């Protein structure tokens, strides 16, 4: 058997992301004359970030077809869940805000909205997909390098509140009660997308796979002869930060939220792109939150919720979530703080 090739799809200059920190250090390609599956790798821009698929398949045609189908599924989900695309299903729903109309949602949008609202209720709104009007102001603030005007923030907050998103479980319909509401699924959509891509791969018989997009990833079965995919937990970018640690991931999701690359600094104060839905202000504690959970959508939502809640309330939330674990590093002032839930230690790679 020939030495298998690693396949790379072209990717544009999309900037750095947590995906660059969550390194895929899987087993090397199968040796020549090996009877086992071969390793293939694909990268493609999706949802504004590079998505990466590493998989093991018997041959290149099988790998190519499976990867194309998985990327196609991510493209389909972007057309549904994007808040940037004014023609997406999500944007069209936001355009009905305050009209009194209930809009029937597709199966994908309904599932993500339902999971979002469940997490919003569990966190008393620390996780809230109705935060779109405020997030839009902070995106503009980062571009212009100045804080949002207090009056505009106050006005935007009037359209924020998860209780103003009403879901009808019988009709799978959603209604936005307040004018100018804007839904933003950025804290959960990529987690759902990596789950969906892995599901496509599995349906095509590819079970040994890892899919990532930005700071979100999901792993299927581990590489041949391994207990899991070896993943680096992103370290905080400050002097004397705790060193990087490695976890082994198999049939689970992992997500990292924080302000390494998306933040605004004004007068020496750093504001994250993660916004507290209650105050409308970007977080200022300079943190990285890494969550491992049974699937990508759970890990994605929890990592943002915990970032807002803080270490103590966040740890309580994780302990009440089946199969979830969290590792937190933050620097709210001049001191570095690190905490992790009891279950996280189970995933560390043995020395």
Question: What characteristics describe this protein?
Answer:
eight-stranded antiparallel beta sheet; 8 helices; alpha+beta; three-stranded antiparallel beta sheet; 351 residues; 29% helix
Written description of the protein model:
With 351 residues, this protein is α+β, with helices and mostly antiparallel strands. It has helices spanning 60-81, 89-94, 107-122, 132-144, 150-157, 189-203, 296-309, 311-319, and strands at residues 38-46, 49-57, 103-104, 165-168, 173-176, 209-213, 216-219, 229-233, 245-249, 252-258, 263-266, 269-272, 287-293, 325-330, 337-340. Strands 1-2-6-7-10-13-14-15 form an eight-stranded antiparallel beta sheet, covered by helices on one side. Strands 3-5-4 form a three-stranded antiparallel beta sheet, covered by helices on one side. The longest helix is centred in the N-terminal third of the chain and has 22 residues, at 60-81. The model is unreliable at 1-34 (pLDDT under 50).
Termini separation? 34 Å
The multimeric state of the shown protein is single chain
How much of the sequence lies in strands comes to 15-25%
Helix fraction bin? 25-40%
């Amino acid at each position: 058997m020939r030495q298998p090739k690693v396949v790379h799809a072209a990717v544009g200059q999309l900037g750095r992301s947590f995906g660059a920190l969550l390194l895929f250090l899987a087993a090397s390609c199968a040796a020549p004359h090996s009877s086992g599956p071969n390793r293939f790798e694909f990268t493609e821009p999706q949802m504004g970030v590079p998505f990466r698929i590493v998989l093991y398949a018997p041959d290149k045609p099988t790998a190519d077809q499976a990867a194309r189908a998985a990327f196609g599924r991510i493209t389909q989900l972007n057309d549904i869940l994007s808040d940037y695309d004014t023609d997406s299903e999500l944007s069209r729903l936001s355009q009905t805000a305050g009209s009194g109309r209930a809009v029937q949602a597709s199966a994908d949008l309904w599932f993500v909205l339902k999971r979002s609202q469940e997490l919003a209720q569990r966190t008393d709104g620390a996780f809230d997909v109705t935060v779109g009007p405020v997030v839009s102001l902070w995106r503009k603030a980062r571009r212009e390098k100045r804080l949002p005007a207090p009056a505009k923030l106050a006005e935007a907050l009037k359209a924020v509140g998860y209780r103003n998103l009403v879901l009808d479980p019988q009709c799978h319909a959603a209604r936005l009660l307040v004018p100018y509401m804007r839904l933003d699924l950025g804290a959960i959509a990529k987690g759902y997308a990596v789950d969906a891509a892995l599901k496509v791969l599995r349906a095509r018989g590819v079970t040994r796979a890892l899919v990532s997009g930005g700071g979100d990833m999901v792993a299927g079965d581990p590489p041949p002869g391994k207990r899991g995919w070896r993943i680096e937990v992103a370290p905080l970018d400050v002097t004397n930060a705790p060193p990087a640690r490695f976890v082994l991931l198999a049939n689970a999701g992992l997500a990292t939220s924080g302000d390494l690359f998306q933040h605004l600094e004004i007068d020496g104060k750093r504001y994250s792109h993660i916004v507290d839905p209650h105050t409308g202000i970007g977080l200022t504690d300079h943190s990285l939150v890494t969550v491992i959970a049974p699937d990508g959508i759970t890990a994605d939502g929890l990592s943002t919720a915990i970032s807002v809640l803080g270490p103590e309330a966040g740890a309580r939330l994780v302990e009440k979530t089946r199969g979830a674990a969290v590792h937190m590093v933050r620097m709210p002032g001049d001191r570095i703080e690190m905490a992790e839930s009891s279950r996280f230690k189970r995933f560390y790679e043995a020395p």
